[in-house]
Structures are given as C-alpha cells and as structure tokens.
C-alpha cells in the first residue's frame, strides 16, 4: 500500500534540490543546513529512503510532463556526449615540416608560394643577381606524414590545429559543441565535458550509488530507514 502522507519538510526540500542536479550531498547540506561531512554521509543514504525515492520519481515524472522531455531522452543525449569522438569538432594534426620532403632536405614551397617568390625575384633581378634558388623545390603538402629521416624536425613534424565547421557536425557532435571563444592566441572551441556527462549518466542509471543490504520485508526496510533518518535529524538539530 502506497504511503500518501507528505514528507517531512526537510526531506521534501531535499527532493526539490536533488532533482535539480542529482547531487545528494549538496541537496542534503542545503536542506538540513549541516556540515559537508554530515551531508556527504547522509545525503546518499537518504536516497535509500523508500518514500524519498518515490517522491524523487514523482518529481521527475512531473517535470517530464511539464517540459515534454523524458528521462530516456536525457540519457540518450548524455550517452551521445560521452561517446562522441572529439575529433569531429577539433583535430590536433601532425603534418610535415617544410624540410621533410624538400630536395636535399631544404625548404620546400607550395606551387603558389614558389610562383610569388620567383615573381619577386624577377622584379628585382639584375645581370649581377645570382641565379634563382628554388631551395627544396615545389610540392609541399600537409597530406603526408612527417618524414622520419628529416634532419630539421627529426620526424616529429609540426602541429596544426583544425576547428571543424559547426554547420556540418553530426547530431552527437552538435550536443558536444558549445561555441567558439576568441582568445589572444586565436580561437578556442568549447565542448561539453565528457567527465561531467559520465557522472550525470551514472547518477541517472544508479551506477555507483551506495548499496545497502535490503531486508526481505520492504515495509520493514522503509521503517528502519525512516527511524535512522529521524535520529540523524535530531542529532543535527542538537548540534546546530
């Protein structure tokens, strides 16, 4: 038989706070006005209270009805944030340096670069000017891997950061993408934290929640938990 009695005020406040960010310790600390140490112990334990757990379930269902967003949708989005490859948004590429594939490991140009350098040379050249030096020649490209034999970069290449076009992101990458911030060094792509999404997903799925030994009688279990919590409330009130 379902207990329809309202929760004690502090427990009701705990439920209100908990469903906001699923942080049991924080919700307990604010609802009971206690120390962090007490909250870290009692907050997760309060989740084992049958009536509190039911109130949290009801609150979540009510919110889903108001917003039109279900728990399944939230979990699907969190999974997408966790699993999305960040390379879809930004890549740190290792490309050849200018000497990797140049003739005799000299500086190598792209075709347009060499045209511009040769044009500038021809404009200023005189009969006494030395012949044009194309150095490592033409053909530089970032499409190759760094050359391990290169005496300039020793095969390490150079770093090239590429921000992807946000208009062409996959649905999962769009959930991760949080905008671009301009910095003194260029641009920084902001992304949703995989670690934070993991923690929320674990809480939604009940992974890592403290496990307590459940007696055979569920009603007796609820009574014992309630008695334990009432005792906690009294100890906190005396300490305040």
Summarize it.
This protein is mainly α. The protein is 49% helix and 10% strand.
What does the model show?
The strands form 2 sheets. This protein has a two-stranded antiparallel sheet with strand order 1-2. A two-stranded antiparallel ribbon has the order 3-4. It has helices at 9-21, 24-32, 36-46, 50-67, 71-83, 111-124, 171-176, 194-205, 218-239, and strands at 90-95, 158-163, 177-183, 186-191. With 240 residues, the protein is mainly α. It folds into 2 domains: 9-69 and 210-239, no CATH class; 96-192, no CATH class. 49% of the residues lie in helices and 10% in strands. It has 9 helices and 4 strands, in the order H-H-H-H-H-E-H-E-H-E-E-H-H. It is rod-shaped, with a radius of gyration of 31 Å. Helix 1 (9-21) runs antiparallel to helix 2 and helix 5 (71-83) runs antiparallel to helix 8.
SSE blueprint and pairings:
Elements: H1 9-21, H2 24-32, H3 36-46, H4 50-67, H5 71-83, E1 90-95, H6 111-124, E2 158-163, H7 171-176, E3 177-183, E4 186-191, H8 194-205, H9 218-239
Antiparallel strand pairs: 1-2, 3-4
Helix pairs in contact: 1-2, 1-4, 2-3, 5-8
Question: In terms of per-residue confidence, which ranges show pLDDT below 50 for 5 or more consecutive residues?
Answer: 210-218
Average predicted local confidence, pLDDT: 84
- The coarse silhouette is rod-shaped
SSE run: HHHHHEHEHEEHH
Strand segment count: 4
Spatial separation of the terminal alpha carbons: 36 Å
Q: Strand order, biggest sheet?
A: 1-2
Rg calculated over all Cα atoms: 31 Å
Structural class: mainly alpha
Main pleated sheet: 2 strands, antiparallel
Helix percent band: 40-55%
Domains counted in the coordinates: how many?
A: 2
- Total helical elements: 9
Strand content: 5-15%
Oligomer: single chain
